[in-house]
Protein: Membrane protein containing HD superfamily hydrolase domain, YQFF ortholog
Organism: hydrothermal vent metagenome
Amino acid sequence: MNPASKNIGTIALVSVVIIVLMVFCQLSQYSLLIPILLLSIGIYLQYLNKANLKLFLNFGLLLMLIVFIAHAVTQYTTIPYYYIPVAGMAMLTMLLFNDLQLSFLMSFLGSILVSLIVGGDFGVMLTFFIGSLAGSYAVQGARARGKLMGAGLFVSATHLVCLFLLNPNLQLILQRSFDVNYLYPLAANGFISVVLVIGTLKIFEYLFGALTNYSLLELSDFNQPLLKRMILEAPGTYHHSLVVSNLSEAAADAIEANALLARVGAYYHDIGKMVKPEYFTENQLLGGNKHDYIEPSMSRLVILNHVKEGIELAKKNKLNQAIIDFIPQHHGTSLIHYFHQKALEAAEDGEHVDESDFRYPGPKPQARETAIVLLADSVEGAVRALDEQSPTRIEETVQKIINNKFIDGQLDECNLTLKNIDKISSTFVRILSAMYHSRIKYPEKKGNDGNSSRKSSEKSSSQPSSDKKDSQAGASL
Ligand SMILES: [Fe+2]
Ligand SMILES: [Fe+2]
């Protein structure tokens, strides 16, 4: 579909949604400003550069859901309207889209629309709005159910504070009708919101194709079929992925990117190596290097294919697109130096070796998290291949690798700043230096038979000999 017809399709779909909403509002005798308000969000999101049709429709669906709940509560029940879980929708937005701005927008619009529908005043709108903001903040980065329960408690407490501030008359607060209509509903509202979130999160996640922290935690379980298979069939790749994930998580944390996404993305970035694990240096134990017996062009194909096969495996196992993105983007359009060099050496006079044939197909990293995994992947391979892993050598190598990736344009399409890159680099150096630190030398013990006891100055993270041997391909694979 060309861009012009795609735009016409988007405008047509949005128009249909707005017309349907206008008809609903007209029939239910609600203000026709509601659909106009929704349209203005779409335009606002466009200006925030967050707009796409999918996000607009997902956001609109959540907003409409709370409108329908408010409509049903006021039209068909006698339940006090303060039971309506507006904060639940804001919490769902925060968990699904991991975006505080969107969650604020949902809090604002949800509060206005619900108070319009229930016929509430400015105080009602403000109570719902502040409660929703509190909920959004409280569930930010939530990974455990306990945090959700805490968020519910926080929402209820915020609602009650708003109620007391709006009605500072103690006699009024002690009246039974006030308690039944305002106090008890607002105290229960936070818990109703949490129940709504827990009950519907998985459904919306499936509908929107979103990836929440809860799903990321499920994916990080080593009993997941792909990870379990990797441990058995490609143990070297599994170990490499673990180190890359530790580096990526710490670096993402340092620049306030999504650390959990970076960690889980790193677990799955090389799953394609499971198809031919023996062709990748980290899995070659004592069997020698398979690439010594094949042409550089064949080696190139095997290495390039780990990306293609990884994507196929991930799709077959129904991984979320946000995780699949790590597979092609962790190499970007980098050059496979070792085999390119080998092909140049093997080329006969006048034979042309095209550099682009030895580059990964890309795309380059599009997000900060995938860019971090690209850097961690290269740095891990290069440092593992060093003869001497002293802090100075590690620092030199890390800086050299990151500079090369930067100069090669691999970081052009993600929004990492130079300050971010500097923080990532120092995090890598700190972690790798700690991993490869040498043990202190124990003093020699003089034995009776004149034999000195063994020296125990081996490296703490002694690598299998094959790991040293495989330095040739290092970072490029
Ligand atoms: Fe890879
Ligand atoms: Fe890798």
In short: The pocket of fe (ii) ion (ligand 1) is lined by residues 270, 306, 330-331 (CB under 6 Å). DSSP finds 21 helices and no strands in the chain. Confidence is low (pLDDT under 50) at residues 449-477.
